[in-house]
Amino acid sequence: MESDQVTVLFTENTDTVNAYVYGPLTPRSGADDMSWRYPHIIGPLEHRGLQCVVDFGLSDYIVHVLLPDGSHLTISPPQETGNADGSIPGFPDSWMVTRDHPDSPDLFEVVYDSEPGGPHERNKGSAPAMLAAVYARLEQLGVPGRERLLAAQARAEAVLREAGFVALPSDRDIPFRLPAGKTGLAERSAAVTRAVHYLKAEGFGCACPADLLDSVAQAAPPAVPARTRGAAARATSPTVPLTGGQPAPVPDPMTMASLGPANQRRLSARTAGS
To answer: pLDDT digits over 58-116, tens only?
Structure first.
């Protein structure tokens, strides 16, 4: 389910509430200093929404590709021999691609091997042939492609609009914000709680300062549009009080690294001060 890879972060300032949609396709704030070594490898994979990390192996740079299930691919040129064959850096004579999981030592597989004697030896250092094998394995693993991820992020943005948030011009750092007329604490809390309720009902992650949800306990949340959410989801939402006198539980902690350090610090400081 692609919605579980998208998270909406809510932040509060003196006069309004902002909302940021984060997912695998959200542009990174800064590129890895070593990513320039394999642009022809990293580019296609990041275009698909996968996070790539360049590290140094035994004798040459390797690429770790993080997958949604917690496992990762390691794309590596020949190690131990270094650049003895005189190949251009980033364009070796062969590739090795493996998959493993840090919490499952028994999981290890060779996805691609074009080294001498390997099953794909005939392809040698062809990057397109290696990427084709990687893409084929990603499809087998059910890793969503770019179109499905874009659709999930677009749906999260549509849910924010349904909840009363408005989109700001694309050149702004803040993509969504409550309208200027909703300045009262009760109005803001009702709108945020409604948005969190809608998002959770469709499987999206949410990170929100607790005090934006607490004050709404004085009023029941608005009804959820039946077009997109069923009664079962409405009845079981973990973030909306079921009766007027019940406090709203604190939302689940944000664990997605894609939020970035600045937003993580802002959220932690805002929650600590509630």
So the answer is: 888 899 999 988 899 999 998 876 555 556 777 888 999 999 998 988 999 999 999 99
What is the per-residue DSSP string for the chain? -GGGG-EEEEEE-SS-EEEEEE-TTSPPSS--TTGGG-HHHHHHHHHTT-EEEEEE-SSSEEEEEE-TTS-EEEEE---SSTTTT-PBTTB-S--EEEEEETTEEEEEEEEEE-STTSTTGGGTT-HHHHHHHHHHHHHHTT---HHHHHHHHHHHHHHHHHTT-EEPPTTSS--EE--TT--SHHHHHHHHHHHHHHHHHTT-EEE--THHHHGGGGSPPPPPPTTT--HHHHHH-TTS-SSTTSPPPPPPPP--GGG-HHHHHHHHHHHHT-
Q: At 202, is the pLDDT very low, low, confident or very high (cuts 50, 70, 90)? A: confident
Size (the chain), residues: 274
Q: Where do the structural domains in the chain lie, given as residue ranges?
A: 2-27+146-272, 51-140
